[in-house]
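Sample intake sheet
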Amino acid sequence: QVQLVESGGGLVQAGGSLRLSCAASARTFRITAMGWFRQAPGKERDFVTAINWNGGNTYYADFVKGRFTISRDSAENTMYLQMNSLKPEDTAVYYCAATSYRPWYSFTDYYSAEKYGYWGQGTQVTVSS
């Protein structure tokens, strides 16, 4: 069983930056990918970004390309999300997710929340205008 703990959320002004962390409590040798999803009030949970845990390939939603960067530290079992040029519309609860799903037939598989079996509790990100 993998437990995920997010940290790093908070309040920031538009144009500012935040860095989220997601620490896995157990060894991640069975994990094939980790990702970030977000959910704003009254909206569905949306894919933000994901990383293939072994190969390091990354995938981004169009609305964060060029602003957000996902990375991982395999030795520390930790994933990061560097968020720059934040906008008020980025305000949401950000969830860390992990999965042992395999094989990945298509890059679009990474976008599906159904492929992820482990979830963190979420961390609030609020961007003021």
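Comment: The longest strand covers residues 92-99. The chain has a mean pLDDT of 94.
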